[in-house]
């Protein structure tokens, strides 16, 4: 008994020593991964372009708030994390940060005052960016962004997640390998696409799964789980890689169009991806959009066709709706018959959905997405799809496609049982194969939506 007690005391002492080491051991920042002259200056416009590529504005701008002034609540499994003010205001922003401090935040997840940043900030990905891009971004923020005095609400998570020094241990687990981009064995276009996807674009932050410790399970092309699908803020981030990835059935031209406009012949962007398109991707050059698309199509050695130099070209286009294919013919025939004894889910589809998505389930190209083979429709977690039925969704206006598209929600029109019947019908129509949705599943999503909307109504 005395021996066991001695071991327990020793373990407790070791734990305390380890905690103190994490809290007080000197921080050693990662050095620059590129040597630049002390007086190096980025070419005009580069810093703003890097900001757009990194999608800084989407997270660091609150709804109705000033650009980059922080205050947007980012939901995580640990609680709400409030984004910081990254304008050059010297009191509430980062106006007093040095370049070294800025690099430490981007690469190591350590803020200007030595505080560990929560990994809602995707430094797991930004650490692959070149020093020249980081420096261009720093100079842009410090000299071109409007300073905004805005004291952001402090992030206050429950114990033990409020003890930020523990993130040093988390970083040892999550930040594997060098903080440096490692190009694939491809051509210049593929390598540029890889750099944007892995680094500034931080696609893995949403589209890679998470480990037990909530780190990204795959941040580089060489990682087996890289871009194999994930979840973010209650939304499914579909797989971009692998034989079952719907995106791999698109052409590189269609992928580039989706990135630029949030829509193509198969799908429209919603949820977090809509914000990415609105604040980031629509501002990318055609060359970079094509590079990302080509990389995504060829990252596992697949052959990829040449892409047109112009992405999502403007002008009148004839894009007729497609008829039902062989897999969808039986469902289309059932819906066309409009028989009084057809299943409830089918009748609900005719009443509420067929006018836009058609009996073929193919939708209207670049306007209403196809439901046959749709990644969200077929998601293992049906909640995001149910949420869209209940609450609707929208696609932002972009410079290449200025029409703002919106789908109404049906929360006030359909009961939980009706939404369940409708969702189950769509998840199994036109050759789709996915689990059915129950009324209790819908009820949970409805209650979650109402709870999330309550603070907004109170304001």
Automatic annotation (TrEMBL):
Main location: membrane
Binding site for heme c 2: 203, 206-207
Binding site for heme c 1: 56, 59-60
GO cellular component: plasma membrane
InterPro entries xref list: Cyt_c-like_dom (IPR009056), Cyt_c-like_dom_sf (IPR036909), Cyt_C_IC (IPR008168), Cytochrome_c-type_DH (IPR051459), Membr-bd_ADH_cyt_c (IPR014353)
Region (Disordered): 437-459
Gene Ontology MF term list: electron transfer activity; heme binding; iron ion binding; oxidoreductase activity, acting on CH-OH group of donors
UniProt KW keywords: Cell membrane, Electron transport, Heme, Iron, Membrane, Metal-binding, Repeat, Signal, Transport
Cofactor: heme c
PANTHER family linked to this entry: ALCOHOL DEHYDROGENASE CYTOCHROME C SUBUNIT, BLL4482 PROTEIN-RELATED
Coiled coil: none
Name of the featured protein: Cytochrome C
Annotated localization: Cell membrane
Membrane-spanning parts: none
Domain of life: Bacteria
Domain Cytochrome c stretches: 42-145, 188-300, 340-430
Cofactor binding summary note: Binds 3 heme c groups covalently per subunit.
Positions bound to heme c 3: 353, 356-357
One Pfam short name: Cytochrom_C
């Amino acid at each position: 008994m005395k021996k066991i007690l001695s071991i327990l005391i020793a373990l407790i002492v070791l734990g305390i020593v380890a905690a103190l080491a994490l809290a007080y051991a000197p921080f050693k920042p990662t050095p620059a991964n590129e040597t630049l002259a002390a007086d190096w200056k980025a070419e005009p416009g580069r810093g703003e372009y890097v900001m757009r590529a990194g999608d800084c504005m989407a997270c660091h701008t609150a709804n109705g708030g000033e650009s980059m002034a922080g205050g947007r609540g980012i939901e995580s499994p640990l609680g709400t994390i409030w984004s910081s003010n990254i304008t050059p205001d010297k009191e509430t922003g980062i106006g007093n940060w040095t370049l070294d401090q800025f690099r430490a935040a981007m690469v190591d997840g350590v803020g200007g005052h030595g505080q560990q940043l929560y990994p809602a900030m995707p430094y797991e990905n930004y650490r692959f960016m070149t020093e020249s891009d980081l420096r261009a971004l720093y100079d842009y923020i410090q000299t071109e962004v409007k300073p905004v005095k805005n004291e952001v609400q402090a992030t206050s998570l429950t114990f033990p997640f409020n003890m930020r020094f523990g993130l040093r241990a988390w970083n040892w687990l999550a930040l594997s390998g060098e903080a440096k981009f490692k190009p694939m064995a491809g051509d210049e276009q593929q390598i540029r696409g890889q750099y944007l996807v892995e680094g500034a674009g931080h696609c893995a932050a949403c589209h890679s799964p998470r480990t037990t410790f909530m780190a990204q399970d795959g941040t580089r092309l060489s990682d087996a789980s890289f871009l194999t699908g994930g979840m973010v803020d209650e939304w499914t981030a579909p797989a971009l890689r692998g034989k079952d990835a719907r995106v791999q059935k698109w052409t590189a031209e269609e992928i580039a169009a989706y990135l630029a406009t949030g829509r193509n012949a198969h799908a429209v962007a919603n949820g977090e991806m809509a914000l990415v398109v609105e604040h980031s991707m629509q501002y990318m050059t055609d060359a970079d959009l094509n590079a990302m698309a080509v990389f995504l199509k060829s990252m596992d050695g697949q052959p990829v066709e040449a892409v047109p130099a112009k992405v999502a070209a403007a002008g009148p286009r004839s894009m007729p709706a497609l008829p039902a294919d062989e897999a969808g013919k039986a469902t289309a025939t059932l819906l066309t018959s409009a028989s009084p004894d057809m299943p409830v889910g089918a009748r609900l589809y005719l009443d509420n959905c067929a006018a836009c998505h058609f009996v073929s389930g193919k939708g209207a190209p670049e306007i209403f997405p196809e439901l046959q083979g749709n990644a969200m429709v077929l998601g293992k977690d049906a909640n995001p799809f149910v949420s869209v039925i209940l609450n609707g969704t929208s696609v932002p206006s972009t410079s290449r496609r200025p029409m703002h598209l919106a789908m109404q929600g049906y929360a006030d029109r359909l009961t939980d049982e009706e939404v369940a019947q409708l969702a189950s019908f769509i998840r199994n129509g036109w050759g789709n194969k996915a689990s059915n949705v129950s009324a209790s599943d819908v009820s949970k999503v409805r209650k979650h939506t109402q709870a999330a909307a309550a603070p907004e109504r109170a304001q």
